[in-house]
Amino acid sequence: MTGITPLFPRQAVPSLDLPLAGGGRFRLGETRPENFTLVVFYRGLHCPICGRYLADLQSKLEEFAKRGVDVIVASSDGEERAVEAKANWKLDQLRIAYGLSLDEARKWGLYISSSNGKTSAGVVEPDLFSEPGLFLVRPDGTLYFGTVQTMPFARPNFQEVLQALDFVISKNYPARGEIVDHLKTA
């Protein structure tokens, strides 16, 4: 069994190079946001909570842009399911990347779940899929903030993320949680 290796603030995040629903590609190393790239990993088309969560994010895209934050969402869904999610959830302004391999998901520290069959939305879960995660990545490719979950519930609130961004940008607040080996530091 392989464990999840956490990402550490102030260190490089894994690469992210994925196709986009509707055409094109997203390459994390090619983005040049003023302050951050917000990377949101969602569970997939089968997750009704994801639909509501991403709709809330889409409603706040302009606010993220005002703060110099580029936004991308991604899942381990294939193209057909990503396109269907984009259409069904009315996410016409949100860039949705798909095809995240489970190996790539693990590199980001995401948890992997197995299918429980058909969800309350009437969509069958894939055999295996990644659970949610949210990351703020600096323009230099290093992690500023990250959170991963084992469940679809109680995700970071985007309005609170925006409020936090106001503080960290205005105060040039450093990334925290950067200590890799506390025994050597003490």
Overview of the molecule:
The protein is of the alpha/beta class. It has one domain (17-171): Glutaredoxin (3-Layer(aba) Sandwich), CATH 3.40.30.10. The chain is built from six helices and nine strands. It has helices at residues 48-59, 61-66, 79-88, 102-107, 158-171, 182-185, and strands at residues 17-19, 25-27, 36-41, 69-74, 96-97, 112-114, 128-130, 133-137, 143-148. The strands form three sheets. A five-stranded mixed sheet has the order 5-4-3-8-9. Strands 1-2 form a two-stranded antiparallel sheet. Strands 6-7 form a two-stranded antiparallel sheet. Strand 8 (133-137) and strand 9 (143-148) form a beta hairpin. The model has no long low-confidence stretch (mean pLDDT 94).
What is the arithmetic mean of pLDDT?
94
- Total helices: the number is 6
Estimate percent helicity: 25-40%
The CATH class assignment is: Alpha Beta
CATH homologous superfamily caption:
Glutaredoxin
Q: Architecture in CATH?
A: 3-Layer(aba) Sandwich
Compact overview of the structure:
Helices cover 28% and strands 20% of the residues.
List the defining traits of the structure above.
single chain; 186 residues; alpha/beta; Glutaredoxin; five-stranded mixed sheet; 9 strands; 28% helix; globular
Topology (SSEs and partners):
Layout: E1 17-19, E2 25-27, E3 36-41, H1 48-59, H2 61-66, E4 69-74, H3 79-88, E5 96-97, H4 102-107, E6 112-114, E7 128-130, E8 133-137, E9 143-148, H5 158-171, H6 182-185
Parallel strand pairs: 3-4, 4-5
Antiparallel strand pairs: 1-2, 3-8, 6-7, 8-9
